[in-house]
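Re: the request from the purification team.
They wanted to know what the chain is likely to look like in 3D before they choose a buffer screen. I agreed to run a prediction and write the result into the notebook, where they can find it.
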Amino acid sequence: MAEKESQDPSETHAQEHPLMCKIHALMPIEVTCEDCEEFICSDCVKESHKDHNWQTIQTAAANRRRGLKRSLTLIEENGIQRIDRKAKRASEVMKENEKRCETEVFRLQKHFDAIVEKLDIIRKRHEATLKDKLESKNAEINKIRSSMERKKNDIFQLVESIRENTSTMTDISLIKIHRELTKLLSSEVADIVGDSLYFLRHEGGVIDDAILASMMGTCFCAELEDPCMGMNYDNKTCLLKKKTMNK
């Protein structure tokens, strides 16, 4: 048990309003237990704190007052300077973190642009397929249209010939011309029925949010030692990592 230290009569300080012990009624709190860091009364010292290192509150305060000036000087010389260094380092790390974040955002944009570029290649391939089919189909239809134009001219010539030569035309000639005109008209109908439209279509695939998110990668937190304050505890710093779909 620590010995009681007598109060230096030269030490004067403001007296606080006495507090009363909650365990021992009407007993003023006059002692501080250094081991438990509690303020207690003299009865507490005899009971639950009898083997502890204790002092009267006045003695403990006097001891602290004697070393207070030196402690404040050390705080100003070492503690505050150390805090300043850490604060400066914190500012430097904040700027470094901003640069790292900008780098990761740039990587994200680059990855996004690469995905868009590949999607654009696929889009152009589909577009080329659709346009090639259009050219092929329109080429077929253009042949039919040219044939129809020729048949139209042939029919027009036959009709004009019949009008102009009906009175002088022999029966056999009239029958031949009429048969030829009938064949031209019937073949025209067949061509129109056999005409085909452009049936190639593009069907969009499923736009799945999970697949798109997987393609874009993910942000994750890496466990790192705090580079800012120089202390040994973990600090989570967010980094960006791309993951391919086959992962």
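For the purification team: The first strand starts at residue 31 and ends at 33.
Please add any questions underneath this entry.
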